[in-house]
Specification:
This protein is of the alpha+beta class and about 375 residues long. The chain is about 60% helix and about 5% strand. Strand 6 and strand 7 (about 200-205) form a beta hairpin. Helix 9 (about 205-220) packs antiparallel against helix 10 (about 230-240).
Length: about 375
Amino acid sequence: MSAVFFDLLRAALGDVPGELVELNTEEWLGLHKQATKQALLGVIFYGLQRVYPDIEQRIPKDLYLKWFYQAESIRGLNQTHYERSKKLTALFAERGAKSVILKGQANSRLYPDKFIRQTGDVDIWVAGGRDRVVSLLSQMGLLKDAKFSAHEVTLPREAFGVDVEVHFNYIYDCRNPFANKHLKRILSYEIENPVAVGEGFNVASNKFSMLMQLSHIRKHLLGHGIGLRQVMDYAVLLRSSLGCERAEVSIALAITGLKPVAGALMWVLSECLGLKDEYLLCSPDARRGQVLLQAILADGNFGKRSRRKRGGVFLWWVRNRLHLLRLLPFDFPEVSWYLLRYWGAFLFYVPKRIYLLRTYKKSLTKSGTVNKLSVM
């Protein structure tokens, strides 16, 4: 990735923009391609506008029009997400339930321009536990076609016009049970102290957000992949936090098992985005930081464009196992627990898979499908 890309990210964060070198058509197209891969089209376009007041005269016309409309679409979708976040908060408040908007719009509002971040879905945590949340959603008539998981209920898009995940468990992603115990304790306390913001909804404390999002970044690094959008989110979060809040989180890094990924992220933020030392949670770790940066550049936003996913399911599975083995030196305790739990679950479900396979084969035999296929 070119130095120009990171200069534009710094400009988008509010740093004083410098004069960038002239780009040719191929370089402009490459810049747009990288912004697409990292889900930073709106952020990079905002940075371009700050650096180049006459951007429409510098960039190829067709690309400028395409990028302009993409940026405007992002602005409009952000506006919709803010409105839906406010509406959801009001709906749950009317029924006496406390709620908190997580990640997306909570992060978006911290950017210099709160409409430039590419949005995903609306994540809202609702207090009271699973049964209470399901009961509230039933009262609202929102359970039809909803999907359930261990942490949230995903509402059908038709309900609010955007994807909405209603969390009855807040998000923490530690596989190490000893570190997880401490992380859960801190987050459980912090989530109970939401902050009302001018956009009409509640957000979690900065301390909660710093720990939860750091854990979330590590989860995606070990899993499908992580991109620069999450790094940018963390940059604006650190810049909007107080020194005392960062100091408390810094103390909690060791007992929550987040010190390795924190050191890596601080290096990326410092080296690539120019974040000042006063905002860093700990000393930058160059060795781990380079590993994290390589993964970010290779995988893109949530690994959606990762090469690991190419070549079929089996090859993807093998590549993911090798990916985890390569990350053992990065965070040995967490990766070890990750692998242990994966293989434990894999072995646990082997008998069930065998049973289902045998049942499927018997059903094919009875229907005559197997005989027909053998004849063919």
